[in-house]
What we know:
alpha/beta, about 30% helix, six-stranded parallel beta sheet, 2 domains
Amino acid sequence: xxxxxxxxxxxxxxxxxxxxADPNPGPGEVLVRLRAxxxxxxxxMNVMGIRGVTGPVPRIPCSDGAGEVVSVGEGVTQWxxxxxxxxxxxxxxxxxxFSQAHASRALGGAVDGLLRELAAIRAExxxxxxxxxxLEEAATLPCAxxxxxxxxxxxxxxxxxxxxxxxxxxxVSIFALQFAKLAGARxxxxxxxxxxxxxxxxxxxxxxxxYKTDPAWDEWALAQTGGRGVDKVxxxxxxxxxxxxIKATRFGGHIALIGVLTGTSGEIQTVQILRxxxxxxxxxxxxxxxFEEMLGxxxxxxxxxxxxxxxxxxxxxxxxxxIESGQHFGKIxxxx
Length: 336
Ligand SMILES: NC(=O)c1ccc[n+]([C@@H]2O[C@H](COP(=O)([O-])OP(=O)(O)OC[C@H]3O[C@@H](n4cnc5c(N)ncnc54)[C@H](OP(=O)(O)O)[C@@H]3O)[C@@H](O)[C@H]2O)c1
């Protein structure tokens, strides 16, 4: 099979197109022919060798994939050839609490990922792709969408009428915008671009703020809520945005700490978290059970993921460059 491997720490030069032996499905496994792979900022970090995230090499990158069942291993009865399936980010985390064991099986990091033609995956991890979604759309869901769902619903307990603040227009934030609107919430959104601000309004954001031209987006969010603060924040920035997120959150509000776009450590005003009784929740994607619940909501609402751009397998490097450019709005997909 054709695949890509990260072979070193020389950025895109270390991303090599290789030919590997086809995998065979073992007992309880399903052989999936990948048709589409969705990219996340994490995949870009892994390929670029950004410190703290890089796994051992050679490593097949990318966690998010959807495709068709080619064959099934011994004992597998629930899937048949041709079924359209999507693969969860941590195939061992079926339900219940998160654990180190699940984290150590995250695709495209701790173990080989899905930027390849074939993968053998345990049968009980797979999920059926709803008829309304293409495989390219399904491939956008495992990391960013499940993370947004976990942040807002599983851990956030979002209610209709609450106000959600989403930062930027990447994969996680656009899914959070869509899920929050489906739940009847009010959405405040920030972006660095006036053109993206226009699109955010088209996608249902109730108010938008350009954080490049006016960095005081925390003051803006407070003003938008009559000084009270927002109920929930989708925190994708990290150290350089968290203090403003804390300021923008109401007493008793919830911050889903998701991203590392501005780094992995920094100075945080811890006293404001306790003074305001804020729940600061570290989120690392979510379980298959959360994914299933989310797919049910997507089906019911006939929601479509927002795809920014699609690249052919041979042009995978260009897809990573598109993430690097920061010009994308929503998800980037590679056809396999
Ligand atoms: N914890 C988890 O389970 C989990 C899951 C998925 C992702 N993540 C993390 O979450 C972050 C976002 O991931 P993603 O895949 O959605 O990324 P992405 O699609 O590459 O999104 C990047 C976008 O974020 C916005 N942005 C960048 N710097 C910003 C800043 N300082 N303030 C506000 N917005 C900023 C920009 O939007 P504009 O161009 O509109 O300004 C940029 O286009 C990454 O750090 C990723 O590693 C974590």
